[in-house]
């Protein structure tokens, strides 16, 4: 899960920068790069939500407030 998060972060950063550069060179490649950028952001969002849900489930299992 951590690998997916880091790969998605790196892909988002690289495709955003290259997409901005390609706006001045070739518009169709820039649109494709921005599409990949949004896909990687979506994957990153899903990974963060899933990890937060796993943490919440773990916290609920280790709840010791009912003494």
Structure description:
The chain is mostly helical and 67 residues long. It is 84% helix and 0% strand. It is built from two helices and no strands. It has helices spanning 2-22, 27-61. Helix 1 packs antiparallel against helix 2. The two termini are 35 Å apart. The mean pLDDT is 88.
Provide keyphrases for this structure.
2 helices; hydrolase
Radius of gyration: 18 Å
The major sheet is characterized as: none
Mean pLDDT: 88
Helix content percent band: over 70%
Relative strand content: under 5%
Q: What is the terminal-to-terminal distance?
A: 35 Å
Structural shape: rod-shaped
Beta-strand segment tally: 0
Count of discrete alpha- or pi-helical segments spanning 4 or more residues: 2
Briefly note the structural class of the backbone: mainly alpha
Low-pLDDT segments, ≥5 res: none
Order of helices and strands: HH
Write a brief structural summary.
By secondary structure, the protein is an all-alpha fold.
Write the layout of secondary structure elements.
Elements: H1 2-22, H2 27-61
Helix pairs in contact: 1-2
